[in-house]
Amino acid sequence: MLLYHDTRAPNPRRVRMFLAEKGLTGEVDFIEVSINDRAHEQPAYLEKNPLALVPVLELGDGRLLRESIAICRYLEELHPEPALFGTDTWSRAQIEQWNRHAELELLFPVAQVFRNSHPFWLGRIRQAPEFAEIMREHLARRFAWLDRELADRPWLAGDTFSVADITALCAIDFGKISQIRVGEDTPHLARWYAEMKARPSYKA
Amino acid sequence: MLLYHDTRAPNPRRVRMFLAEKGLTGEVDFIEVSINDRAHEQPAYLEKNPLALVPVLELGDGRLLRESIAICRYLEELHPEPALFGTDTWSRAQIEQWNRHAELELLFPVAQVFRNSHPFWLGRIRQAPEFAEIMREHLARRFAWLDRELADRPWLAGDTFSVADITALCAIDFGKISQIRVGEDTPHLARWYAEMKARPSYKA
Questions:
Q1: Which of A102, B51, B64, B120 is deepest in the core (most CB within 10 A)?
Q2: Do residues B135 and B175 lie in contact, with contact meaning Cβ atoms separated by under 8 Å?
Q3: Distances (CA, A) of A128 to A67, B106, B131
Q4: Chain A environment of B116 (Cβ under 8 Å)
């Protein structure tokens, strides 16, 4: 399998962390598609993904799969252990709920702050700095909410580490480039973040 | 089961259409949480969902499940037929990819146009009209892309109707309030849209 990725973008990192947690990193060849060099906009890559997004998984027979979570679900079916999407109907539902919360309430706003206010995108895309400010305010509220949620359980979806924790970690780390950080005002979130950093998959 | 929903919001409609396609509408009691009346911000509802979002599914034993797609996946496990998330590893991966495309490339931008430019939200939330314009431009490109995709297959994820079609339909219909419509310049998308409107679940 080939994984087209960018080393600094959050969505490919979700897949790399997922592979590391599964012990599958060695099964995949990684091909860098540098967003900084606009490699994702070149015709060769647009044949892999007309939306110009990373990551893409390419199978041995040439089939292509886009979208980080579609790739992770596919890998989970092929390699069920350790289960990162749950082990029964209710745990799967809870993990799906929390993965979506991590994505929609954290990763999406963090990405919009970056896109709409960071100099990296100046001259590359049209920016709306006011929307970045709205998303910054949103994230402060969501960090406080997540801190309350993590006061009485170890992981986002409950007692078990899951793909939802991977999504949240990639979101929070991607905030650093926009000076969004987990602070001392959210001690439970900080505890969770420290535990995430201690996992070997953190370096993926 | 109880479903807390708003009759005009797109995410609860995804669940209602899903229930209709499964023949399960009669199994659920529906409780209106009117966003227009700010019922979603009242303490009674915040106990169901601290994020003040609809829909929420409440089971007979009081367990709560948030997020439209988490609810749909849960229902799919309980009632596998007709399968709307795929029938084998690859079809499940493809449907997940396309459902995410429908959500991230259509539903999310449509919702942001509405939130950031529609008078409904004046005085309710802080708006960034420039971001709404960016999302309108994005949607025009995505409608053209989807038109090309639908030129040679009946449904978003291939030969079989799936949850991805439900998501895309709810996104496109939610665009109407912001004067975003499928036009004659995208004939394949218009063909798909006409077929969606002909399904009994469209009225859900």
A1: A102
A2: no
A3: 25, 19, 5
A4: 131
Inter-chain residue contact B70 with A97, CB threshold 8 Å: yes
Q: List chain B domain ranges.
A: 2-78, 89-203
Q: Does domain B89-203 have CATH number 1.20.1050.10?
A: yes
Which whole number is the average pLDDT over B128-150? 98
Between CA A138 and CA B129 the distance in angstroms is 17
For residue A51, list chain B residues with Cβ-Cβ distance below 8 A.
101, 105, 145
Q: Average pLDDT, stretch B103-121?
A: 97
Q: State pLDDT tens for residues B4-33.
A: 999 999 999 999 999 999 999 999 999 999
> A2-78 maps to which CATH number?
3.40.30.10
8 Å CB contact between B106 and B166? no
Read off the tokens for B159: 């030969």
CB contact under 8 A, B67 and A108: no
CA distance, residue A105 to nearest chain B CA (Å): 9
**Residue that is written with structure tokens 């023949």 in the block:** B23
d(CA A150, CA A193): 11
In B, which residues are within 8 Å of A145 by CB distance?
Answer: 50-51
Alpha-helix residue ranges (DSSP H) falling in A60-128: 68-78, 89-101, 108-117
Angle at which helices A187-197 and A163-174 pack, to 10 degrees? 100
- Note whether A96 contacts B145, CB cutoff 8 Å: no
Contact B70 A96 (CB under 8 A): yes
